[in-house]
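To whoever is on call:

I kicked off a structure prediction for a single chain this morning and the downstream step that reads the tokens threw a length-mismatch warning. I double-checked the sequence; it's 232 residues and nothing unusual in it as far as I can see. Pasting both halves so you can look.
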Amino acid sequence: MSGAARLSADGLFYWDGSRWISALSPDGRHRWDGTRWVPLAVAPAAAPPSLAFASPPIRAAAPRAIRVATSWTKPLQMAVAGLAAVQAVWYLIVPFWLAGPLTENVRRTAVSTPGALDPSQLSTVAILTLGATSVVLIAIATAVAIGALRRWIWMHYVVLALLGIGILDLPIAVANATGITPQVVPISGRLLVAQWVAASFSVVEIALFAWMLMALLRRGPWATRKELSAQE
């Protein structure tokens, strides 16, 4: 019998003349083809299965507090922004409108006061001070108007503080306008009008201060109400 005939049909056994013997070597790396040992091609080791990681469960977003406008919010915003806009325009006009009367008042005061500085120098200082003050007040009024329209929470407290300070101008303006405050040269004309305008602003500021304080205590900044809203 030929060597090829001694192999089984599947090639895994061969006949030694008395029994079938495995054609594979003990280490499983060679196979007897009937005449010689033939190395077997080793199949690559299978890659280990990838571990599947489950995504963490989606947690519900924690609710966050938001401010919701109420029926008072818009009117309060417009009142604050409107007053700030009017005051900004007034502060813009004041340096030009009062430059002449202020210069004359300073000159008369210097003449009536022995040992005073040169009237022209005093007038220059007074006008520069008035102009610088107007620039600062215009900037503050503009910031207040923007903060009110944008409903910045912190601006509510700033406006309350500014209104509280502005209320103190009322007795000062009234005292100057009525002559209660001793003056070397009594004010008149445009300077007197400016004092009454300042007093009028203070009256409006008192009412607005009371409204904003009531809104803060009863509802919140800018009369907004706090509600819980789930985050997306």
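Update from on-call: the warning came from a stale cache, not from the record. Cleared it. Sanity check on the structure: The chain is about 55% helix and 10% strand.
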